[in-house]
Amino acid sequence: MATIKIPTPLRAYTDGNAVIDVAGGTVGEALNDLTTQFPDLRQHIFEGDELRSFVNVFIGQEDTRYRDGMDTEIETDSQLRIIPSIAGGSNA
Questions:
Q1: Distance set, CA 64 to CA 11, 25, 28, 39, 51 (Å)
Q2: CATH code of the domain containing 34
Q3: pLDDT tens, N- to C-terminus, the chain (92 residues)
Q4: Which pTM value belongs to this model?
Q5: Domain carrying residue 74
């Protein structure tokens, strides 16, 4: 099975699990399986059927947005990572 590494802020929605086994042949299917296992996580990853704009999914070092996005094919041993974007700061 493929795995998804969960960032620390989202682990509250995965019962503290840092890595989750998921089924699916694409990134979208894997994320749907993840949010089926942990329904409270869905609102933090998706807006409707699309990934939230600040949520990035990587396979290894590659951002899936620059491949086929949610349609990016994955292997059964793929290791995905959810990486939330960080913004903010001050000029002061």
A1: 22, 14, 10, 23, 11
A2: 3.10.20.30
A3: 999 999 999 999 999 999 999 999 999 999 999 999 999 999 999 999 899 989 999 998 999 999 999 999 999 999 999 998 876 666 66
A4: 0.90
A5: 2-84
